[in-house]
Structures are given as C-alpha cells and as structure tokens.
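Example with several molecule types.
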Amino acid sequence: MSSKTPQTTRRVFLGGTAGAAALAGFSSLAQSPDTRPDAQAVPLDDYSPEFLSAAEWTFLLAATARIIPSEGDGPGALETGVPIFIDRQLAGEFGTAADLYMEGPFVPDATPQLGIQSPLTPAEIYRQGIPAFDDWCQRNAGAAFHDLDTDAQDSALQALADGDTDLAPELREFWSLLLQNTREGYFADPMYGGNAGMQSWIYIGYPGARANYLEWIGRDEPYPLGPVNIAGERA
Amino acid sequence: MARTDPKKEVVIVGLGWTGSILGIELAKEGLDILALERGPDRSTVPDFQYPNVIDELKYGIRYGFMQKPRNSTITVRRTLDETALPMRKLGSFLPGDGVGGAGIHWNGQTWRPMAEEFRLRSYVEENFGADLIDEEMTIQDWGVSYEELEPYFDRFEYMAGIAGQAGNINGEIQPGGNPFEAPRSRGYPMPPMPEQTDMRLFREAASAMGYHPFPRPAANATQAYTNEYGMQLGPCNYCGFCERYGCINYSKSSPQTCILDALKRYENFSYRVNSEVLRVNLAADGQTATGVTYWDEEAQEEVTQPADMVILAAYQLHNVHLMLLSGIGEPYNPQTGEGVTGKNYSYQMNGGTTLFFRDHNFNPFAAAGSSGVSIDDFAINQIDFATEGFIGGSYITAGLSNGQPIRGISLPEGTPGWGAEWKQAIGEWYGHSMSIGSHGSNMAYRDCYLDLDPTYTDRHGRPLMRMTFDWKANDIRMTQFMRRQIEPIAQSMNPDSWRSSYKSEGARYDIRPYQTTHNVGGAIMGTDPNTSAVNRYLQAWGQHNVFVLGAGAFPQNIQYNPTGAVGALAYWAADAIVNDYLPDPRPLV
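Resulting structure tokens for the full complex:
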C-alpha cells in the first residue's frame, strides 16, 4: 500500500534524499499538516452564508458531516469547508441554473434516464428540499435531521438516496445535488471555499495544479510532492 | 432590427476543426471568406493558460468550454412513441462552442477507420450474406473508399502532428504497430507516446495471450513539430488536463495550435464570434443557397449574410439542425424510410473493466489524453459476424487520461458512494486502479434519427432538434462479446479485484452519465440521393453550393474515435471544392 496519509507523504518526501535536496525550496512541505495555519479547521461558526438561511445552514453542516464524516483517515466535509463551498455555489450561477435549459413544459416525474426535468433551479431545490426532508425525518424518525443521532442520520440519508422520502418529483435531484456538491467542495480548488488547506488532495495523493509530470511517466512509485493550488500556494 | 451585410464568396458556419481546415484551404485560393462562430473567441493565451485552466470545477465539472443548454440543446426520446424531453443539462455528450469547437477539449485519439468500415453493408453481404442484416438495421456504404481517402488521412495526420506507431506501411506489417490496420503510405509524423504503468501491464498481458498491442495514435505531441502551415507544437508535459480543457502547452493538436494563427494572416479571411447562424437561405427555386441569416449577439440583431457558397462546419448535431430548419434535403421519415436529413443518427457502444492493484502506483494525474495501448484483435475485420451473431467490432484499450478527483475515483465493487467507508476507500484506492475499455461501433437503425421537436423551442424561437435513439440488441451482443474478451485479460493480470461495466440486454439509453461525444450521422454521405443527404464530396444533393462537413456524414458509427475520419473527409471535400467545384460550380455527382 502506498503512502496516502499526510504523515506518510511527508515521511516519503523527507526520506527521498536526492529529491528532497533538489526541492529544498519547498520548505512548507516539511511542516506538519497539523501545524500549518491553512490546515486548521475552517471556522464555520464565523461564516455568514450568502444564500442559505440559518436553518438551512444547520442542516447542511449536519448532512455533509455524514456524507464525508470527520472520523477515520483523512479530513471530513467540515474540516475542509464543504458547507462554505456549497453556499457560495448556490449563491452563484450554479444555483440559478444560469447554463441550463429552463423552458417549459416541465415533466418532473418523467423517467430519470431522460435527465433533470424539474422547473426548479438547484438553489430552489435546496430551499424546498431541506424542509421537505426535515419534515420526513420528523414524521419517520421523530426529529429534524440535525437533531437525530448519527446512525439515524445515516439511515435518513440512505432513504433519501434510495428515493424513499416521499419528496415531490420536482425535488427528485435533491440527493444527487447534495452528494455531488459535497464531493465538489471536498476536491475543488480551495479558491471556491472548500478543500481547506488542500487537505483532501493531500489525503488521496493528488498534486493539484502542478500540471507538469513529464519526468514521472512510467514510474510505478508514489509521487513525492504535495499539492499546489491555482493561487500558487503549496501544502 | 436587422441588417444585410455585403456578399462574401464563402460563408463557413462554425470555426472548429473542419471550419478551420476549409477556411485555410479556401483562403489559399484567394476567396473572400467569412466564418461565423456562435461561441466566444478562444486562444491558447489567455483562454487556456496556466494555472487558470487547471480548474477541474470550472471546466471539468461545470463545462466551461461546452455549449450552454440555455443557448442550445436538443430533446431526446428512446422510441417513436415516447415524448421527447429537453436535455436541460449536459451529460451523455459534451458539444463545445467557441472558436476551436470540440477540437480544443478532446483527448486527441486520432484513428483511421478500417477499410471494411467504409463499405460496411457490402462487406457484410459479401462475406456473411445479406440475411445477416436485420431489416431494421439501416447500415450503408459511405460512397468513398479507404484507398481514396488514404492521402487525406495522411494530410490530416501530418497537419495535426499525430504521434503513433504504424502497423502497415504499403502492405508491409510493421513491428509494434497495429497489424490489422489498413495500409498507410508512410508512418506517423511523431514517435508514439511513452509507456505508463497501466499500459505496460496491459501490453504484457495482451502479448502473453497472443494479441497484438500497439500504442494509441495520439494528437498529443511527443517532440517539437512544425506543420505545413508553419504552426508549431511542443512536446506534451503530461499535465493531466486534456479532455474538457484547452491545452496549456501547445501540445494537443487543435485548431488553435495547428491552423488558426496561420489562417488569421490571410486578409481574405475574417471571422465573427458570438454569431449564431439561424438558417441557411435558399434561392426561390431551392436549388442553391443564397447565404445565411445569423444572430449578432453584440449588435442584438439578425444579419442576412449573402454568399456564393455555404460550408456547414458546425458540430454534427448543429449541422443537421440547420439542414432541418433550412429545408436542405427531405427530412427523414422513420415510418416510410423515405427522406434523408436526420437519417441514421448513431452513437458509440463502449464498456470497460476496472482493475484494482494495491501494489501499483498509476499516478493518474501524470497523464496525457491519448496515451494508451490498444489491441485490434477483435476489430470489425477480425470478427466472424455470422458465428458471433452481431455486426460490429471494437478496439480494446488501456490508458489513463487524467486523475481529476471530482470526476470520479474508481472504487472496488461494493464500496458505498458516501460516508465513512467511502472516505476510507478513496484514500486506499486513488491512484491504484486502471481500466481496460472497449470502444465499439454502433449500427444505424430505422428508428434512430434526428428531426425537429414539436414542442420545445430555443431562445430564437426555433424548434429544438429531437433525437430518437436507444440501444439495440445487436450492439449489446457486441459489447457483451468484448466483455468476454476483456475479462480474461484482466484476470490474467492478477489484480486485487476488478469490476465490469458493459451494457446488458434491455439497457436503455440514459442521457445523464457522460458516455462519449462521438455523435454521428444525420447528414450521411452516399452515392444515391434517395438514401443519403450529401454526395461523396459532402455536397448537398439538392443545393450544389452547400457542403456539410463533420461526423454527420458517417452512415453508421465506426469502432474508433471519429476525428481522424472527420479530418480526412474535410481535406477530401476541400480538394474536391478547390480542384473540381470552383472551376465549374455544379453538382459534382
């Protein structure tokens, strides 16, 4: 098994003598991920959502924390700022369906294989989907989603994923949007508000925007350098 | 508001690969040319420059270089009695817009179809009997042979600077190349791309089983190169951002890197961007085009642009849409089988097996779009259709084109899609999987076609084009056959685990997941005006001053990526226009 955790990535890098010497200028790589200021947990409490209401924000914190939990190896959605990413996306062109064909007639209950057919924008699907799903949680599990224990939250999300939460057809994409946007916020360049400290890239061993690997072709060994982002920062 | 501009000798609709090729070949003749591009202008700098374009969210996920469905989309149904609904969001395929078209955001796999594919119906009838062709299957010969097109394949490959290893030069089989390919007149202009770990593992396994692996032909430069127009390519640095991105490095062949800067130096050539052609205008007798009408986005007005000749060089779907809107060719009727425009829309039947290896580091981020190894041992000219019970074939291939994490991390069978186990799995398996894919043909059928939608309209009030398409049993048998060839190769490689994804009986077309942008047909070429929309020179049968370029000409889909054939046909048509049509404008057939 190759190195994948931040700790072993760092160990591999420091252990590679010639490579380390040649790249001594990358001093930040030698720091522990835990001590780098940009790898600290994002202060979600200090963030003022642009699009989401307080209740929606509470839901999103709870839901993304189950989709990519903090437990185990690697950062979770909360450590990487995924809710901030999603809020910003919903406030922008993604949320308003700026690129999508939004002319009627709409047939939201058509076969899913013909793609999204909801008259609602992604932002509207979150806005209507969160209370609808919370209402289902209340009726079926006895509390709103964020008040459930984590096992009950996981069960509720699985029901949402399986289409078993009696959401209106117009809200059918709520789960796929939530899952996709969570993954996007986890892995997208940090300039979009998620992937804080490039922690998700460090975790899986993705070098980000380095974009120059000619010398690495055909080498069956772990890549030693940590990621860079589009702003040119190194992790 | 509306205006009429001064007449041009040539109007080209769309400035991607085929528009650029026709543009420069006709500009050299001194013609006064205007190209109209519906999307924005795009150049390597600033539009593809590092680091801005290394942005997976903006370009890979939000489709920054693709057409916006709000501006242009189609409706889709699977059967004649289903109600077609609009493709509101891109998914299954990703047409580009803007200067360079899909030529900026492809991976660059540049193949020649097999000689047999150009005369597929005849090949099947001669070798396996006409009874093998179901009457619902409407496959046809192209009306042009591989031998006729060979010089034009050569021209396109040397213009684009393709890296590869020839397998057959003038009938002599070349070691390390594809022994089943049709003869080529000389080798590729650049040496093949170097071998990566997944390529090595597949090559070794395929060789051990007696197959004939060869490097994939790639429009990703392996050395410095200058083409016939004086355009220069530099060697690829494996940035891992080919498909869906413009090239940062002047390495991926595209209209920008291979043609446009040379073309823009011709004073008799000009182009307008954000100018979407709404229709081709025909003379009162319908026998010729008088020009086009387009929407000038900046001026916010319709413009009538008179021209002596109209070259439709937009993406396949848009060319067919314009023909349907303009009355070029009789619309195809699936009930009667009569009519030609929109006929024989075909797609591509792909499948694959993913292999997981704990002990190999594939470093998928260190990638070029086209590097890979293939075998053609199960290609169209290697299969006994009568024995196997299908018509078609596939190349089988391994090669990692990127390691971008949002677009997906392959995980072993049974891994959940979210939660703690998913997070654990992405840490364990990122960079530890490779795939062996089947890239297969797709036959044409009576009820797979393109026409105008009765309900939905675009922002200009024009009917959207309606696609009727579904998977058919013949092609599913083909992909299942490929599965039976690929899985033993995968097993012989001793992965920790593997998983397969091939269409199986009853599979329906699903527009959501990305599959391929190899949409073909609808403006098919041929020798009979009753069964084809354009003649063998891509000239409209009914309007001799209209030529229709691109993959719309394919009467059914080949087993390869289409751009090689699209490029060769463009040079073939350009040659016919320059040497035969311009001296005496008339129907060439």
